[in-house]
């Protein structure tokens, strides 16, 4: 704690040195070289004097130029962009990532974060070890970040136990708390930006017999996973449904939600031929039939550097996929 306080104090007394570092990504020459302005005027009191603000393109009369909750001087200390409200482009503002420690614990304004609230029916609490394994997959994703480190920081946060009902219907019907959408409405906090919602249940029941064997379900920013007894299987189900909510719809690639492509050619949890214990997304490196799941997720979210690479929609596959489960296919998307 003391070290942090000292650091902040030091950078406050030498704001220009900190600025140089953030701007050029090279070591500051010396702390004193530019830090001794005579009578600097800091009109808005954000820790940067007016002439420095002109250089940076920030507003010298507004402390928080991009209105993200962090003053311009503080942003330079952190390395975030004082003129961009969401420096890492993950849908969570710089200020929220730094200050909303209760709703976004562990968020990093320079690294892509995805938060998932997970509720579970009584007796179906997901194992932390399983959630850790999936988080590790995302952490090593080949996705770049402003902090220079690859990966997506996935936060799978177990929230609360909800009343059990088995099986639970994966379709809307009138009545209180008798289908998965009732649970979503009552227990999710999807109004929080950047959040997905997951519900772990004992058994899912489908109104359409053709999909009754599926163990998970995804719609928009919400997914449901059965909690099967077989070890390892749930990793794959959760990974698969997370893929859907993150943007991997069946119209993106013929191998998603199908058995048309061998697992070796498209080694992804989105492939129905994935062995139960193979929970991973593909990076497109296995040849013509492969698909870069990670890049599709990134471009689906509009992350800088990936937004122009979205694969063309496969209309034929989309319509085939829509055949048995139109609602599912048409609505699964990304934030
Ligand atoms: Ca700001
Ligand atoms: Ca900012
Ligand atoms: Ca952000
Ligand atoms: Ca972030």
Give the SSE layout:
Elements: H1 2-13, H2 15-24, H3 50-56, H4 72-78, H5 94-99, E1 113-121, H6 128-139, E2 153-162, E3 168-169, H7 180-187, E4 195-201, E5 204-205, E6 216-219, E7 222-226, H8 233-246, H9 293-300, H10 315-324, H11 326-331
Parallel strand pairs: 1-2, 1-4, 3-5, 4-7
Antiparallel strand pairs: 6-7
Which labels suit this protein?
single chain, alpha/beta, Collagenase (Catalytic Domain), five-stranded mixed sheet, 11 helices, 7 strands, binds calcium ion
Description of the molecule:
This protein has a five-stranded mixed beta sheet, with helices on both faces. The protein has two domains: 86 residues, no CATH class; 219 residues, Collagenase (Catalytic Domain). It has 335 residues and is an alpha/beta fold. The longest helix is centred in the C-terminal third of the chain and has 14 residues. The chain is globular and about 75 Å long. 30% of the residues lie in helices and 12% in strands. Helix 6 links the parallel strand 1 and strand 2. It contains eleven helices and seven strands. The N terminus and C terminus are likely disordered. The structure holds calcium ion (CA) (4 copies).
């Amino acid at each position: 704690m003391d070290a942090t306080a000292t650091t902040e104090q030091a950078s406050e007394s030498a704001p220009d040195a900190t600025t140089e570092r953030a701007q050029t990504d090279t070591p500051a020459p010396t702390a004193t070289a530019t830090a001794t302005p005579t009578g600097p005027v800091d009109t808005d009191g954000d820790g940067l004097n007016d002439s420095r603000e002109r250089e940076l393109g920030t507003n010298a009369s507004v402390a928080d130029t991009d209105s993200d909750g962090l003053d311009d001087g503080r942003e330079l200390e952190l390395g975030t962009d004082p003129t961009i409200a969401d420096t890492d482009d993950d849908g969570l503002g710089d200020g929220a990532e730094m200050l909303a420690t209760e709703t976004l614990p562990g968020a990093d304004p320079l690294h892509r974060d995805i938060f998932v609230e997970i509720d579970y029916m009584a007796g179906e609490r997901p194992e932390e070890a399983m959630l850790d394994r999936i988080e590790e997959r995302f952490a090593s994703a080949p996705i770049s970040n402003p902090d220079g480190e690859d990966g997506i920081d996935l936060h799978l946060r177990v929230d609360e136990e909800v009343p059990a009902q088995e099986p639970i219907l994966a379709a809307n019907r009138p009545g209180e708390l008798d289908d998965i959408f009732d649970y979503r409405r009552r227990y999710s906090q999807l109004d929080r930006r950047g959040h997905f919602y997951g519900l772990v249940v004992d058994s899912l029941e489908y109104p359409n017999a053709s999909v009754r064997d599926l163990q998970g379900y995804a719609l928009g920013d919400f997914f449901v996973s059965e909690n099967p007894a077989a070890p390892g299987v749930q990793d794959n189900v959760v990974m698969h449904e997370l893929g859907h909510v993150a943007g991997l719809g069946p119209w993106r690639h013929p191998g998603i939600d199908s058995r048309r492509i061998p697992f070796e050619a498209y080694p992804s949890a989105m492939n129905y031929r994935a062995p139960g214990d193979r929970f991973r997304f593909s990076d497109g490196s296995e040849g013509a039939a492969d698909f870069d799941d990670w890049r599709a997720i990134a471009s689906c979210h509009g992350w800088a550097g990936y937004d122009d690479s979205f694969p063309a929609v496969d209309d034929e596959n989309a319509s085939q996929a829509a055949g048995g489960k139109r609602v599912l296919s048409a609505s699964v998307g990304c934030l």
